[in-house]
Amino acid sequence: MGAGHSHGSTHAEDHRRKLAIAFAITASIVIAQAVGSWITGSLALLTDTAHAFTDAAGLAVALIAGTLVLRPSSPKHTWGYRRLEVIAALGQATLLLIVGAYAAVEGVGRLFEPPTMPAGELLIFGVIGLVANLIAIGILASNRAANFNMRAAFLEVLNDALGSIGVIVAAITIATTGFQQADAIAGLFIAALIVPRAVKLIRETLHVLMEFTPRELDLAAVRAHILENQHVQDVHDLHASTVATGLPVLTAHVVVADECFTDGRAATLLDEIKQCVAEHFSISIHHTTIQIENETTRLHESDIGSTH
């Protein structure tokens, strides 16, 4: 016995317009900063350009994923394409980690052999990047917590804006003090911004893809709460995972007394358990599959399991 739900994309929000605008802005930043890094030879600007390119690629992926998650479910795709937003976020985070590692390695090398930087040009391109990123941040900010996909996109433009600030600071430092290592330090600063956030997002998306229990849910507490019902004798095969942002699911086998199947209590018990799971805990789980069974059924399941 289980819950009858539509597992499609009815709860998936359409963020494509904002993602498209942010992508156009970020792609413009890539072109401008690529020209600037070629003219100046700046590591900070080159790293920020690579970061912006990663952002643009990530936003393009986010835009594609944002389109696919809106497709309805089907017999072959029972959850639709909701999980694509998690996969897209993982890909973006991985790219960010690669860029951050490159910046760290190259930055350390340039601390000892710093090239001469044209501070004026460096400042101009840093300001261009900052202004464009601030516009993109303003566009994405209101929906940054909507799902993994939007969160990754927002973090990318935010980190890129901070990277542009690093470029500006490096340019001002070089212009006023002649300290050429400021460019390498700015590159390392950008790497320090990128890596921790990328690692955190990778961990969170892998947590979903590995179908681990949602962090907000204590399965032991769920089992104990279901067992508080006087007609419930046992709970086994209890599993919980997350399909996509805002879509946790739970399955369980609940053993009840034999008389529940003769007095009509089994159906009422199913409704009570589903309501309990949906309302009692810190996250609401409306997609539940609960199998109500008696002790004989459970023993039969155990016998089948022991043959494999």
Structural descriptors:
disordered N terminus; 308 residues; 64% helix; mainly alpha; three-stranded mixed β-sheet
Overview of the structural elements:
The protein is mainly alpha-helical. The chain has a 3-stranded mixed beta sheet with strand order 1-2-3. Mean pLDDT is 80; it is low at 1-12. It has 9 helices and 3 strands, in the order H-H-H-H-H-H-H-E-E-H-E-H. 64% of the residues lie in helices and 10% in strands.
Please provide the ordered H/E string of secondary-structure elements.
Answer: HHHHHHHEEHEH
Please tell me what the overall shape is: elongated
Q: What is the distance, rounded to the nearest whole angstrom, between the alpha carbons of the first and last residues? A: 25 Å
Which class do the helix and strand fractions yield? mainly alpha
Low-confidence parts: 1-12
State the strand order across the main sheet: 1-2-3
Output the radius of gyration.
Answer: 26 Å
- Main pleated-sheet profile: 3 strands, mixed
Relative strand content: 5-15%
The overall strand count is: 3
Secondary-structure topology with pairs:
Layout: H1 16-40, H2 43-68, H3 84-112, H4 119-140, H5 148-177, H6 181-209, H7 219-227, E1 232-244, E2 247-256, H8 265-279, E3 287-293, H9 295-306
Parallel strand pairs: 2-3
Antiparallel strand pairs: 1-2
